[in-house]
Design goal:
disordered N terminus; 19 helices; two-stranded antiparallel sheet; 8-stranded mixed sheet; alpha/beta; globular
């Protein structure tokens, strides 16, 4: 890569607002102009990964801009060969027949018969095949618009102008290392928007967190100014069903404001922010505690009191950790709590915790779950535990008046690590941790964080 697409950005509202509801084509033309796209040269957008959020994001763009076929091409890549099992095919058939609009669409496209055959067990359906008809394997009950699906990664990315990372964080590095092979001869630099909310921990030469955007930058060499993160307190299926939602696109000044405007829809407001890595890390942190929330909810039969006790302790641990990671942690309080709240209410990580507590799942079954996809909170538990166990990060214990590693002041995180990673205690241990009479008041944990010079910029590679 030797140059980057250039454009005069002008002044946009930070939330990407537009003057009227009919400005979709104007927004598309404006963004094409920023990229220097001449007439007849398509703006090529591809989403890599077909999980719930990646598929919905591609579908939102297709719904908004897909009608302008001479100006934009929107596609989604997923691996080929993933078969749909019989029970899922049966459920999918029920969903199709419960929605008259979907049923009529499939009949018009001469695609209905294969779902009948799949329901009867006379045919094997495949994930990429049903995605073309608008069905995400991880979100069967929410039909999307038909999508252009590519199963060849090189074909998908080699000339894409905008690449959406819809992969789990655990797969991001490997896939983008492969993508980098196809970009060796590129002249223009793509824009990459990552939706992933997981993290990894690197311990040498110094302890630090590695986020998906950093994995992408290391793997591809794309300048960090062209890599952004988009996240917010939202549930993919509800966004596609046009529940009002908001999100932040975080990254360098060069692209974030124009992208906020381009991505905005009447029911999906996109703000922009310069703090890329910190918002990314917070997106991973809330997944950790969402799993525990699901456990507590199930084990106590949805006891409001028990859930509030858990919420008090987990939020104090998150505040404690953000003081290590952020120079101005108070600015993250609103976004972090909002994202945590929606994940506790309906996110897959909270659901996973509930299923563990009910015995329907076990940690031995892994963190890739049929019908849900990757449970990213599991790997995040391991990453944050490993990071906060480093002696170089030691803090003063409030009672013992001696240095301890930060994880010793995070009993919920420690317990989740024992349950999910070490697998040495049962799910019931989460309640035992909450009821431990020696546990410090959550307020004290917050006071420790606020009264000490905790911030360690090296943890986010900012030193």
């Amino acid at each position: 890569m030797v140059s980057s697409a250039q454009g005069e950005h002008g002044s946009f509202h930070s939330n990407g607002s537009i003057s009227n509801s009919n400005g979709t084509e104007e927004r598309l033309d404006e963004f094409r102009s920023l990229l220097g796209k001449p007439n007849g040269d398509l703006l090529k957008i591809v989403s890599i990964g077909a999980g719930a959020w990646g598929s919905v994001f591609a579908a939102l763009l297709q719904d908004a801009y897909g009608q302008f076929r001479d100006k934009v091409q929107i596609r989604i890549w997923r691996r080929p060969g993933r078969s749909v099992d019989r029970s899922t095919a049966e459920h999918l058939f029920e969903v199709i027949n419960s929605r008259e609009d979907v049923l009529r669409r499939l009949i018009r496209r001469c695609a209905y018969l294969k779902y009948v055959e799949g329901r009867l067990g006379d045919r094997t359906l495949y994930a990429d095949e049903i995605l073309r008809d608008g069905f995400c394997l991880n979100m069967i009950e929410t039909p999307l618009c038909p999508l252009k699906v590519v199963t060849n990664l090189q074909e998908a990315v080699w000339d894409a102008d905008i690449v959406i990372n819809g992969l789990p964080s655990t797969e991001t590095r490997e896939v983008f290392e492969e993508i980098s092979l196809y970009w060796k001869e590129r002249i223009t630099v793509p824009i990459i928007i990552s939706l992933a909310k997981g993290v990894e921990a690197a311990l040498d030469p110094i302890p630090r967190i590695i986020t998906p955007t950093q994995m992408i930058q290391f793997a591809t060499g794309v300048p960090v100014e062209n890599i952004l993160y988009l996240g917010g307190p939202n549930i993919a299926s509800e966004i596609y069903n046009k529940e009002y939602a908001n999100a932040r696109i975080c990254g360098a000044q060069k692209w974030r404001k124009s992208l906020a405007k381009f991505l905005r829809q009447p029911h999906f407001i996109v703000w922009d922010n310069s703090d890329l890595v910190t918002h990314e890390v917070m997106g991973g942190l809330k997944n950790v505690y969402a799993i525990g929330a699901g456990m507590v909810a199930s084990l106590t039969n949805e006891s409001a009191t028990s859930k509030s006790v858990y919420f008090s302790h987990c939020t104090s641990e998150m505040i404690f950790i953000t003081h290590l990671l952020a120079e101005e942690p108070e600015k993250l309080a609103g976004p972090l709590l909002a994202d945590t709240y929606v994940t506790l209410l309906k996110g897959r990580n909270a659901w996973y915790g509930q299923m563990l507590a009910k015995g329907d799942l076990s940690p031995d079954m892994g963190d890739s779950i049929k019908g849900k996809g990757m449970i990213q909170g599991v790997s995040a538990v391991g990453a944050f535990y490993a990071l906060l166990s480093q002696p170089s990060l030691s803090v003063l214990h409030p009672d013992q008046n001696e240095p301890v590693v930060p994880v010793e002041l995070c009993p919920i995180l420690k317990t989740l690590y024992k349950i999910l990673i070490k697998r040495e205690v049962s799910v019931q241990a989460i309640l035992q941790a909450l009821r431990d009479e020696t546990m410090n008041d959550p307020r004290e944990r917050i006071e420790i964080a606020q009264s000490h010079a905790f911030y360690r910029p090296s943890l986010l590679s900012k030193s």
